[in-house]
């Protein structure tokens, strides 16, 4: 078996997405994916990685990673790392199809039949046009069905009840981001703090912590003193966690922050590999490790991160607010790792543009996620 074709696909309706399709000489197809700066990732894949793949009969993700490792660009989640991550995921998909086994079996085997999900309250157009984490990239101008971001900002109680009625028992919101943009994360006024807390208060009028795990995302936009102030104000509402209060590479500041607040902190979607996670775990800052299976360099790295976190008795709650192939991949990771506790999902993506890209996605029902027994990642490109 040899790889005879490497194809990249960029859907016009989702400019940040780059899907990779591998084909072998015996007719197998496998999918990978990168998200953010798709054009640059696509160029890097064809210039630097395709020559390593075409004609190759050495299809192990680990062996590929060894030869693809760049001299520069490996310390962060930039183009090189995300391009390698896309190919790595595709090679895991291919390995599963060769073995006629789901990827979860290759990762050690499922340790649970299903896992609880939480809903990240984005809308279908969220972060779809640029790689900026900014309100101008929230996609609210195209708001339509499942516009959960507009809903949490303007009718959070109604949204909470709607999710609860679906059986979803966790939700994530980010009501403070616009204020960080105004001050560059340096301060928040009393009125701004109260405005952000209004969202949280209304959620809690509908569902307490026993009914709805509430995650509050800060996107690493704040300095330490202001993040401390926000988190202390949030503590009265019993959040499940506060996510990325400051940058994930600010290890000393995160350690100090951890000492100053009582709320659990979730950190790691932008951390890369075991070397990126090791200081986070050593510092004790991360209550939950939110590894992204693509941005961290692929499933090969993500499973190492999961094992490393387990050594520190830290649960993983893998990130997913990107594309459908990565979602499928991370679900296999979560189902197979003993320290995984909850899986992020975005119903606005799953019910709008994800099915336009792939079919065979993992299933979510009554707030629980399950994967199929189909080989590989269990997905294929949607017709057309």
TrEMBL record:
<dbReference type="Pfam" id="PF02746">
    <property type="entry name" value="MR_MLE_N"/>
</dbReference>
<dbReference type="InterPro" id="IPR013342">
    <property type="entry name" value="Mandelate_racemase_C"/>
</dbReference>
<keyword id="KW-0456">Lyase</keyword>
<dbReference type="Pfam" id="PF13378">
    <property type="entry name" value="MR_MLE_C"/>
</dbReference>
<dbReference type="InterPro" id="IPR034593">
    <property type="entry name" value="DgoD-like"/>
</dbReference>
<dbReference type="GO" id="GO:0009063">
    <property type="term" value="P:amino acid catabolic process"/>
</dbReference>
<dbReference type="InterPro" id="IPR029017">
    <property type="entry name" value="Enolase-like_N"/>
</dbReference>
<dbReference type="InterPro" id="IPR036849">
    <property type="entry name" value="Enolase-like_C_sf"/>
</dbReference>
<protein>
    <submittedName>
        <fullName>Mandelate racemase/muconate lactonizing enzyme family protein</fullName>
    </submittedName>
</protein>
<dbReference type="GO" id="GO:0016829">
    <property type="term" value="F:lyase activity"/>
</dbReference>
<dbReference type="InterPro" id="IPR013341">
    <property type="entry name" value="Mandelate_racemase_N_dom"/>
</dbReference>
<feature type="domain" description="Mandelate racemase/muconate lactonizing enzyme C-terminal">
    <location>
        <begin position="156"/>
        <end position="264"/>
    </location>
</feature>
<dbReference type="InterPro" id="IPR029065">
    <property type="entry name" value="Enolase_C-like"/>
</dbReference>
<dbReference type="InterPro" id="IPR018110">
    <property type="entry name" value="Mandel_Rmase/mucon_lact_enz_CS"/>
</dbReference>
């Amino acid at each position: 078996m040899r790889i005879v074709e490497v194809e990249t696909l960029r859907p016009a309706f989702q400019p940040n997405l780059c899907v990779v399709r591998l084909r072998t000489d015996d007719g197998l197809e496998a999918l990978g994916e990168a998200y953010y700066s798709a054009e640059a990732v696509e160029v890097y894949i064809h210039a630097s990685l395709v020559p390593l793949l075409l004609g190759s009969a050495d299809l192990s993700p680990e062996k590929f990673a060894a030869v693809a490792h760049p001299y520069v660009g490996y310390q962060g989640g930039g183009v090189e790392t995300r391009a390698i991550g896309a190919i790595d995921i595709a090679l895991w998909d291919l390995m599963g199809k060769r073995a006629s086994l789901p990827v979860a079996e290759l990762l050690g085997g499922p340790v649970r039949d299903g896992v609880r999900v939480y809903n990240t309250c984005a809308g279908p157009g969220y972060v779809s046009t640029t790689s900026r984490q900014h309100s101008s990239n929230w996609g609210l101008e195209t708001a339509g069905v499942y516009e959960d971001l507009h809903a949490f900002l303007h009718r959070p109680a109604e949204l909470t009840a709607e999710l609860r009625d679906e059986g979803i028992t966790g939700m994530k919101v980010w009501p403070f981001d616009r204020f960080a943009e105004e001050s560059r994360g340096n301060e928040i006024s009393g009125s701004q703090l109260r405005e952000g807390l209004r969202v949280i208060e209304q959620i809690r009028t509908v569902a307490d912590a026993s009914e709805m795990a509430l995650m509050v995302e800060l996107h690493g936009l704040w300095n330490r003193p202001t993040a401390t102030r926000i988190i202390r104000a949030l503590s009265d509402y019993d959040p499940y966690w506060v996510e990325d209060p400051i940058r994930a590479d600010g290890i000393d500041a995160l350690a100090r922050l951890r000492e100053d607040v009582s709320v659990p902190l979730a950190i790691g979607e932008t951390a890369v590999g075991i070397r990126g996670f090791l200081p986070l775990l050593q510092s004790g800052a991360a209550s939950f490790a939110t590894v992204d299976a693509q941005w961290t360099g692929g499933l090969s790295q993500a499973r190492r991160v999961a094992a490393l976190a387990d050594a520190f008795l830290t649960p993983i709650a893998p990130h997913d607010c990107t594309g459908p192939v990565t979602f499928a991949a991370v679900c296999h990771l979560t189902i197979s790792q003993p320290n995984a506790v909850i899986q992020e999902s975005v119903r606005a993506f799953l019910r709008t543009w994800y099915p336009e890209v792939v079919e065979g996605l993992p299933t979510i029902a009554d707030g629980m996620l399950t994967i199929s027994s189909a080989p590989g990642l269990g997905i294929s490109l949607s017709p057309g």
